[in-house]
Amino acid sequence: MLRIIYKYKSEFFILVFLFSAVSNLFSLPEKQIFPDKSFFIYERDLSSFRILPENQNADAPVTWNYLKPVALDYDNTQKCASGRFCVEKIQYQKVDISYFAEDHSLPLKSLAFMKSSGTYFVQAESKKSKVIFRIAVRNDDSYTGYLSELTGVPFVYWPRFIQGHGHQTDLGLGADCIAVLIYGRRRMGYNIPYFAPGKLYSFSEKIGDSISIQNAKIRDGDILHFSFQTAVIYKDLPPIGRLSGNDIIFHTYHKTAEKLEFSELPYRKMPFDILRWK
């Protein structure tokens, strides 16, 4: 019924997508997924990029699904203590987006949920195969640009290396506060391992703290180290060079990695150091 209406009134486009999402809202979550292929693209290219399943018969019907992670606080240390490769399984909601496919491919410009930077998982499913695509979208090639690929990625405390696949954060599956910071450096080509927050001082220099905050000259990419939590100055807004309430911060604290103003940080009143990567 909705599809018939859409043919005559384009304003029902978003309504069709919402109907599809709601119809799958109560389906059982998927088990742990791993991307079969990853695409790293710029936000500006979303309007022209399309996914074409590999090794698929052009005449075979394909079902396209958006695998949306359920925003929970996952914890590899509490719920999975059987070994160093063990992880708590991330839950996913499967949303049928086949309606937006064209000529056996999926144009990203048609997807209402994929309009900005972040990590997205899309599954192409036929009778013979299932292929999961990871689309990592970034703003640019700066440190903060690479961080933007993790927008919307679930919070996973102590993300781990999964044997045969790779590290959860490198795969875009999940991250905690320090893993977010390290991911950006790794994407820039630095040979840096994932480590605990305390070791961050070995890879950075202190340029200020919450006591001498007026004297610290900050810039995009500087780190706020709250001992128990870390975050990144994503965008230094006027007054330039000084940490202020309207500066944009990138962090993951609960649920998902996100951007927000410094004034909105729930832990902003705690003591912190300002660090800069060496």
Q: Could you give the count of β-strands?
A: 17
- Average pLDDT, rounded to a whole number, is 88
Summed up, the domain count is 2
Q: How are the strands of the largest sheet arranged?
A: 12-17-13-14-15-16
**Number of distinct helices:** 4
Protein model, in words:
The protein is an alpha+beta fold. The protein has two domains: 2-187, no CATH class; 197-277, no CATH class. The protein has helices at 2-8, 13-23, 143-147, 177-187, and strands spanning 37-42, 50-51, 63-69, 73-75, 92-96, 106-107, 118-125, 130-138, 155-157, 161-162, 166-167, 204-209, 223-225, 230-235, 248-252, 257-261, 273-277. The strands form five sheets. Strands 12-17-13-14-15-16 form a six-stranded antiparallel beta sheet, covered by helices on one side. The protein has a five-stranded mixed beta sheet with strand order 1-8-7-3-5. It has a two-stranded antiparallel sheet with strand order 2-6. A hairpin with a 4-residue loop joins strand 13 and strand 14 (230-235). The relative contact order is 0.14.
What's a quick, concise take on this entry?
31% of the residues are buried. This protein has helices spanning 2-8, 13-23, 143-147, 177-187, and strands at residues 37-42, 50-51, 63-69, 73-75, 92-96, 106-107, 118-125, 130-138, 155-157, 161-162, 166-167, 204-209, 223-225, 230-235, 248-252, 257-261, 273-277. The protein folds into 2 domains: 2-187, no CATH class; 197-277, no CATH class.
